[in-house]
Design a protein that fits this description.
189 residues; alpha/beta; Nucleotidyltransferase, domain 5; five-stranded mixed sheet; 5 strands; globular
Length: 189
């Protein structure tokens, strides 16, 4: 909070890692307001090798950080699927994106897909289309859901914002209900 009692704006980079398509989004969040700065996808299928794809991911994440100056990054964790090879590839993409953010000094938080969906829609089993529709409602403008990887990245950033502002978030660090009451005396009856 700043000295006027309003929450300081926070720019968050959301990443949905992938080795063929990586989604990204940057939001500016302040209190209950969330503004979309940019969202898009990095298409990697034109690269011949896995190493070239990982190099592109590293460079693009660093470019996004340099261009948009996020203070934090949120990234979707790979889900446990039936194909171990896919999990390995996704884990590599995630690791490279995390390394790119770490070299730029960004704090990184990882969220499971169900947690992201739960935070945004209230339903951990929501479809990608339901998540996109809720994001449009939250941002008060339609979200282009042609690229669901970008929408997933946006949902990851929004989830991070919502988790950071939850009265229950970080209760072990003194940011729980007692901190909420301290910071919001006008909201206590």
């Amino acid at each position: 909070m700043d000295n006027k009692g309003t929450k300081t704006p926070l720019r968050i980079l959301g990443i949905d890692p992938g080795t063929n398509v990586l989604g990204y989004a940057v939001i500016l969040a302040q209190g209950q307001e969330i503004d979309l700065t940019v969202m898009g996808v990095l298409t990697l299928s034109h690269h011949d090798s896995a190493q070239e794809k990982l190099h592109s991911i590293f460079e693009r994440v660093q470019e996004l950080i340099t261009q948009y100056h996020p203070q934090e990054m949120a990234i979707e964790a790979p889900f446990f699927g039936k194909n171990p090879q896919s999990m390995l590839k996704l884990g590599r993409a995630q690791g490279v994106a995390i390394a790119a953010a770490m070299t730029k000094g960004l704090p990184i938080t990882e969220y499971m897909p169900k947690k992201i969906k739960q935070s945004v829609t209230g339903n951990g089993n929501a479809s990608k289309e339901q998540v996109a529709a809720m994001l449009g409602h939250m941002l008060k403008s339609p979200v282009d859901n042609r690229f669901l990887d970008a929408t997933d990245a946006l949902a990851t950033a929004v989830c991070h914002h919502l988790q950071r502002n939850s009265p229950l978030a970080g209760s072990a660090k003194g940011k729980g209900w007692s901190r909420f009451i301290q910071d919001n005396p006008d909201r206590i009856a």
